[in-house]
Amino acid sequence: MAALATMYNRFAAKARTENLRGPRGGAALRSFANEDIYFFVKRIDNTKVVREENPQARGTCWKLIGSVVSAVVLLIFVLLPSAYGLLAGYQIQTLRQDGDRLETEQASLELAEAKLLSPARMEELARLQQFIDPPAQKVVYLENAQAGTVAMNKK
User: Fold this and answer.
1) What is the largest CA-CA distance in the chain?
2) Nearest alpha-carbon partner for 16 in 40, 38, 2, 36
3) Percentage with pLDDT > 90 across the chain
4) Integer Cα distance of 67 and 65 in angstroms
5) What's the CA dihedral at 32, 34, 37, 38 to 10 degrees?
6) Backbone angles phi, psi at 106, to 5 degrees
7) How far apart are alpha carbons 155 and 153 in whole angstroms?
């Protein structure tokens, strides 16, 4: 191929230098590299060509799929403990907030109970419902009960 290009250069060198002279007969310009090469583009129609099946390609694809799946499973096992710790942290924080809320609710309920069971309120309720103190002869005092004895009704 190189020999053909050399032969072409010998025959076309004179014509090329004559074409490079300007209209006023000035000096010749240097030619561009590979300006004398002509590339012919031929359209190729491959619509009727059928690709031959490669039996090794199927095995290669399954090996690739298996390796990707195993890599994903390994990645999940590596990241699972940290994700579980993160979720446990959220759950612990939620439980702490619920505990604080329940403590404040318990404190408010104890305050309400103390207000309802105060002696002043009991006296007021007794006055409103017209409760009276029982006479002394109707009050029964229980004897000192020893361990294991049961209080009984007296006649």
Assistant:
1) 154
2) 36
3) 43
4) 6
5) -60
6) -65, -40
7) 7
Tokens of 124: 């007021």
36 contacts 13 by C-beta, under 8 angstroms: no
Residue 122 has pLDDT above 60, yes or no: yes
Collapse the DSSP code of 72 into the 3-class scheme (helix H, G, I; strand E, B; otherwise coil) and give the result: helix
**Is 0.70 surpassed by the pTM of this model?**
no
DSSP string, 84-150: HHHHHHHHHHHHHHHHHHHHHHHHHHHHHHHHHT-HHHHHHHHHHTT--PPPGGG--PPP-PPTT--
Buried b (16+ CB within 10 A) or exposed e, 99-126: eeeeeeeeeeeeeeeeeeeeeeeeeeee
What is the C-alpha separation between 103 and 99, in angstroms, rounded? 6
Give residue 127's pLDDT: 87
